[in-house]
UniProtKB/TrEMBL annotation:
GO terms for cellular component: Golgi apparatus. InterPro entries: Kelch-typ_b-propeller, Kelch_1, LZTR1/Attractin. Pfam families: Kelch_1, Kelch_KLHDC2_KLHL20_DRC7. Residues 359-368 have a biased composition (Polar residues). It comes from Oryzias javanicus (Javanese ricefish). Gene3D superfamilies: Kelch-type beta propeller. This is Uncharacterized protein. The keyword Repeat applies. Residues 359-378 are annotated as: Disordered.
């Protein structure tokens, strides 16, 4: 089996001002921030947090308004044009049938807003509440697939939310073709160009390891045939990275979590297991979340060249530190020499293969608005990082577990 370029893991210990450790939560990234909502520790959670990667700080956000969701688990959250869209995850009760399971958060205004208050939301047809489904953004739409729907079990419905009109539709009509992945939940999904890729999950009582592609232009499913790849998985996570999809964790059951990292390359349609450089590795995780930070994880931009240079604006160095820490075998003292200065091509190559990054922004005196603008400016120059947040096993009465991964191009 072919191997991807090695990766380097390191834990990011969190302070007490952080969300508690949890599983079955939802998260997504937006301009250098990671948002975490709900989930479970010893019970259902309804808190909402923002993690600034630049500042390495957590901020708890208000979730008390009427437009905010209640406690949710196994829900989804995606970002599109300064709004977060949360779907599903409501507890099964008589209250659930009275409320539609879609919520919107205005990132700029830092407040929950009525999903029907923007352009006149068309109510029918609409999907019902579900858990363990997937949601991705394709262009100006959110695609929702599958999920567990109360006593009816797993669903094979594919729904589209059109952001411009805030209306729902069933691609291909109400009677969707059965030639797709079939009813399932606990799977993963990732978007690339005009397609959504769905992997694994639970179909009935059977765990799966198949890979499916939904072509949103042709409105059809295709089973992607591969001879290798991850084992049967549920409760794993998937993110799009450059020309591929990364899958981390999950397991064949909730009591057998794994810590393997896999990459599926879209153009070659091949899987590779990503090896790890010497050092700590995350424990096996299931029902966790992954969030990608940096241009390589942004589907709308071309990844920058690996130059090894520090972020600059207008030809001037920014007050942003990209401090690198070597693997154990790396020459001692090199980490002190790598800070806000150009590197030789050989140094840059070693760093891309053997180092991870810790990113900090210095705080300057000034208005809150100026600091927020500066922070957003910094976020555009972050290196490519993958964060793994929470998941089973849960450490009770402890801050959320966070691991950082940097991936080599080798």
């Amino acid at each position: 089996m072919s191997q991807g370029g090695p990766c380097l893991w390191r834990p990011l210990p969190q302070s007490s001002q952080a969300p508690s450790d949890r599983s079955k939560h939802a998260c997504c990234s937006h301009r250098g921030d990671v948002f975490v909502l709900g989930g479970r520790d010893s019970g259902a959670l309804g808190d909402f947090w923002k993690y600034s990667v630049v500042r390495n700080e957590w901020t708890e956000l208000d979730c008390s308004s009427e437009a905010a969701p209640e406690e949710l688990e196994e829900h989804t959250m995606v970002a599109h044009e300064d709004f977060l869209y949360v779907f599903g995850g409501m507890m099964d009760s008589s209250f659930s049938s009275c409320r539609f399971p879609l919520w919107m958060f205005d990132i700029r205004k830092q407040m929950w807003v009525d999903p029907g208050g923007r352009t006149g939301w068309v109510q029918t047809p609409t999907p019902s509440n579900r858990k363990g489904h997937s949601a991705v953004v394709l262009g100006s739409t959110m695609m929702i697939y599958g999920g567990f729907v109360d006593v009816r079990g797993s669903s094979e419905e594919l729904w589209t939310l059109h952001f411009d009109s805030m209306s729902w539709s069933l691609p291909g009509g109400p009677r969707q073709t059965p030639q797709g992945p079939g009813p399932r939940h606990g799977h993963s999904a990732a978007a690339f160009q005009s397609s959504m890729f769905v992997f694994g999950g639970l179909r009935g009582l059977q765990e799966q390891r198949d890979l499916w592609r939904w072509n949103n232009s042709a409105l059809m499913w295709t089973c992607v045939s591969t001879k290798s790849g991850p084992p049967r998985l549920i409760g794993h996570s998937a993110v799009t990275y450059r020309d591929g999809m990364l899958i981390f964790g999950g397991g064949e059951c909730r009591d057998s979590p794994q810590n393997c990292l896999w990459k599926f390359t879209f153009h070659t349609q091949r899987w590779s297991r990503v090896s790890s450089l010497p050092g700590p590795r995350p424990p096996g995780k299931i029902h966790h979340c992954c969030a990608g930070i940096g241009r390589g994880y942004s589907p709308s931009s071309v990844p920058p060249a690996q130059t090894g240079r520090s972020p600059q604006l207008g030809g001037k160095h920014k007050a942003f530190q990209n401090r690198c820490y070597p693997a154990p075998a790396f020459p001692q003292g090199l980490e002190d020499a790598i800070e806000l200065q150009p590197l030789t091509s050989s140094d840059a190559q070693l760093i891309s293969r053997c180092l991870t990054s810790e990113n900090k922004a210095s705080r300057r005196n000034g208005s809150q608005e100026a600091e927020e603008a500066e922070e957003e400016d910094f976020s555009q120059h972050l290196p490519d990082l993958l964060l793994v947040l929470g998941g089973r096993p849960v450490s009770h009465h402890c801050p959320i577990s966070v691991w950082q991964m940097t991936l080599s191009d080798g």
